[in-house]
């Protein structure tokens, strides 16, 4: 899997899925379960994200481990808490 950055094209909080476009305007399907945030997992159109790009069995492009730009990753949270020790 490749780590990428992209922009949310659209996301339906009601349906729980949407699409992210990468810098080359390639679209990746994203399911709410892959959004790495606390609480209600949703994305906003135009929001910047980082994600792991992969394919499913039918070779459809998928976004996994999606981190919204304003979210802090588990790794970053751990690093900042260790720095305060």
Brief summary:
It is built from 1 helix and 5 strands. The chain is mainly β and 85 residues long.
Q: What structural class do you assign from the helix and strand content?
A: mainly beta
Distance separating the two termini: 33 Å
CATH class: Mainly Beta
The CATH topology turns out to be: OB fold (Dihydrolipoamide Acetyltransferase, E2P)
Note the overall shape. globular
- CATH homologous superfamily assignment: Nucleic acid-binding proteins
Biggest β-sheet: strands ordered side by side in the sheet: 3-2-1-4-5
List the helices and strands and how they pair.
Elements: E1 2-12, E2 17-22, E3 27-31, E4 48-55, E5 61-68, H1 74-83
Antiparallel strand pairs: 1-2, 1-4, 2-3, 4-5
Structure commentary:
The longest helix has 10 residues, at 74-83. A hairpin with a 4-residue loop joins strand 1 (2-12) and strand 2 (17-22). This protein starts with a strand and ends with a helix. The protein is globular and about 30 Å long. The protein has a single domain, classed as OB fold (Dihydrolipoamide Acetyltransferase, E2P) (Beta Barrel), CATH 2.40.50.140. It is mainly beta and 85 residues long. Helices cover 12% and strands 45% of the residues. Strands 3-2-1-4-5 form a five-stranded antiparallel β-sheet, with no helix packed on it. It has one helix and five strands; from the N terminus they run E-E-E-E-E-H.
């Amino acid at each position: 899997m490749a780590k990428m950055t992209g922009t949310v094209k659209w996301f339906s909080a009601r349906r729980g899925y949407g699409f992210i476009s990468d810098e080359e305007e390639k679209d990746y399907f994203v399911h709410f379960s892959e959004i790495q945030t606390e609480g209600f997992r949703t994305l906003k159109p135009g929001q910047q994200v980082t994600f792991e790009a992969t394919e499913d069995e039918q070779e459809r492009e998928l976004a996994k481990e999606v981190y919204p730009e304003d979210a802090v990753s588990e790794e970053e949270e751990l690093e900042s808490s260790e720095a305060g020790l």
